[in-house]
Amino acid sequence: MGDAIWQVRLSVPEAAVPAFEAALESVEGGALALGGPDAQGRVPLTLYLGEAPDRGTLDTRLAMAAAAAGMPPPDVICALMPEIDWVAESQAGLPAVRAGRVWVYGSHVAEPPPAGTVPLLIDANLAFGTGRHETTHLCLLALQDLAKRRAMTNLLDLGCGSGLLALAAARLWPSARVTASDVDGPSIRVARENARLNGFAPGRIRFDVGAGYAAPEVRRNAAYDLIVANILAGPLNALATQTARALRPGGVAILSGLLTGQEPAVLRRHRAAGLILQARQRLGDWSALVLRRLG
Ligand SMILES: C[S@@+](CC[C@H](N)C(=O)[O-])C[C@H]1O[C@@H](n2cnc3c(N)ncnc32)[C@H](O)[C@@H]1O
After folding, report:
1. Cα of 158 to ligand 1 centre, how many Å?
2. 72 CA distance to ligand 1 centroid (A)?
């Protein structure tokens, strides 16, 4: 890894986040990350891009978002990030992280897994999902909560990034079929390698590349009794009807990547698609919803 990456950075009041989120998500080839609000209630948004954005188009979209949110256009930093060797960064000492019984560690961690944990080796990489982000943490907790109560036979990790959630699910339900997909091809390569490094046989987790439910493997293996999707509120809402259709009656979806303030909109959209709220977990400003398709 170590490719140079462009960053577009800005911060906006919390109420303006949906407008700017939509504007930045419409930039082709970008990946958007949201931080928690600062003391003044401003939320940092960072768009990562493989190449320099078209500044004219970007400024127009941001000006339209600002107008929709009733505020002046925010200051925008657009910069080429210095090359970062993520693996070296990881080896420089990220400690293992624990979410319930799941213990996620890098290959530089020498300490043995704590007793009773489910250890998963995930090195920091350009694929999202080292277990450090609140959205991933919430999914790991929700998966474990479900595993205590329900047998699952057919699972999907939609937007799998590093594959961490798919790997955790395969450990929690050892005999279930697990499918994992991501719109980003390089992430799928990383996820496959992570499965191998964690001792999963080839084919044990079925990986495929594709947006939403379009990947052939994802279509072939439906309907699911559990779908976990840690993508942003916008894509989750856009996929709501397809998510409901891809679930078996009584099946469960864990939706993450949304801010607590986005819960009502995400719930509305998914209720309209035929899903009901079963549980909700929050961590800081982030929320994960556990929804069930009516039987
Ligand atoms: C926040 S990361 C989550 C990674 C991992 N599942 C986790 O929980 O740590 C979101 C991932 O979803 C992928 N993604 C975003 N929108 C998607 C879509 N519409 N279809 C498939 N994958 C998507 C991104 O490429 C990214 O790898």
Report:
1. 7
2. 31
What ligand 1 atom has the least distance to the C-alpha of 184? 25
Distance 80 CA to ligand 1 centre (A): 23
Name the CATH superfamily housing domain 129-293.
Answer: Vaccinia Virus protein VP39 (3.40.50.150)
- Which candidate, 139, 135, 101, places its Cα nearest to that of 120? 101
Mean of pLDDT values over 43-55: 85
With a Cβ cut-off of 6 Å, ligand 1 is lined by 128-129, 135-136, 139, 158-161, 164-165, 181-184, 187, 211-212, 230-231, 235, 257
107-135 exposure pattern, b = at least 16 Cβ within 10 A, e = fewer: eebeeeeeeebbbbbbbbbbbbbbbebbb
Sequence ranges of the domains in the chain: 5-81, 129-293
pTM of the model: 0.74
Residue whose CA lies nearest to ligand 1 atom number 12? 159
CATH assignment of 5-81, given 3.40.50.980, 3.30.70.1710, 3.40.50.880, 3.40.47.10? 3.30.70.1710
Amino acid 2: pLDDT: 38
